[in-house]
Amino acid sequence: MAATPEGGGASATDIPGFGLLRQSVETWGGGRRGGAPVRRCVEDYKDFPEMTKRQVELLLEHGSLYSIRQAGRPEWQAVIETLAGTCYGRQTLDGTRHSVAEEAENPLSLLFARYEELREGYENRRYKPLLPTSEIQARRNEAHRLLNYRMRESDLAALKDLALKGKRPEDSVILRHGLETGYRELDGLQRQWREERIDDDYPGMEQTERQMDAGRGSLMRQAAALYEEKLAGRLPGDYLEAVSDERKMLRELARNGWSERVEIPRETLVKYGLAEVFSEIASLRWNYHLSQDNGDLSREYPAAAIDRHSRTIREQAAREAEKLEKRLFLTGAGRKGHAIVLRTDSRIRPEDLFRWEQKNRRQVDDTEQRKPVRRVRKF
Q: Domain spans of the chain?
């Protein structure tokens, strides 16, 4: 029988057994070996609600049940069942109907909702998914409702990181926003790439890498559309600045094409489907310089092939820039071109931005040198 926790003012790490739980979670994470010691720690202190609550908060903090693979393991299913049978679990699941706001403040309800959602995603990956009963479906609907209420801010931050940086979100976010199919295909390509690396199949690895870049770009564009749709036109300033930088890079590529003097972030190339063409140019230049280093001076610089790829870059960048401007920017007519005004940023007035762009256009030429001020003689 577990010892009674003493000292009401003691910290969580001073309570017997809590250090073992933390060590199990931090060392093994959500792995197979982590589930058994975590279940034993929960079982030892099942009669102490405050201790169980701290254990649940620790599991939420370290993300032990954030992966579809972990949710399918019987060890973690046993942890969930043990938590439901504790004194704290019975108090939480007493059958009383609470509001979504109250449920969202309960860590055990939040942990159960995460597990239910990930378990649903795990079962949907089966060859023949099982049809849920009405009770299971009702429980899943309740979990979705709670997580959609509780996780709005964190989900938006994850979607923004995916849209701008290509950072993979947690499995629960992937499931909630319909990104599972794309990431499942991407995981399959990553396994294929590892097998090709073991077999030293370098041409196959290059082809697989291009397919992976195409899949990541599609997911980034999908996340950007979701993020902009969910905010309903109230986009934050940092997102607008990042998208404005992307538009500027696309317009630069649409005008000049490829240039070894211009460095474009790789995530921007992946997002707008330009990574493959840039990889082709890099491969051509690499082969040329390699032959030069090996003493083969008969090979000419592949200028014609690079020009063809550069033309493809200009066309693709122009199309992507036009789609981006139609989605997020507003065109206003002017005498010497047009001003691009952010549709959703209320801090900038269209007339102010138009005058600013006209002033820059008069004072700065293509070489970024300041033009002399024109003086008009009045008669």
A: 12-150, 152-232
